[in-house]
Amino acid sequence: MLAKIIYILGIVLAVWCVLDIFKTSKYGIIGKILISVLVLAFSWVGFAVYYFLLRGKI
């Protein structure tokens, strides 16, 4: 049960990151798609990297 909650939370956070990327990113559409695919592919790690390292820079 806890594993499902963590899994769903990871998906929600990854989708939130993708929406944030498309709203605020300075990159073109290809860059946005590439970053989004990477965040979705690596759910928790992608979220952490985006939120802590890339969010303020892109």
Give an overview in words.
This protein has 58 residues and is mainly alpha-helical. The chain is built from three helices and no strands. Helix 1 (2-24) runs antiparallel to helix 2, helix 1 packs across helix 3 and helix 2 (29-41) crosses helix 3. The protein has one domain (2-54). Helices cover 83% and strands 0% of the residues. The longest helix has 23 residues, at 2-24.
Count, helices: 3
Helix content: over 70%
Distance between the termini: 36 Å
Principal-axis shape equals elongated
Number of strands: 0
Write down the overall mean pLDDT: 84
Overall SS class: mainly alpha
**Count of domains:** 1
Strand content: under 5%
Rounded Rg: 12 Å
Write the H/E string, N to C.
HHH
- The low-pLDDT segments are none
Main sheet makeup: none
Features:
mainly alpha, 58 residues, 3 helices, single chain
Concise description?
This protein is 83% helix and 0% strand.
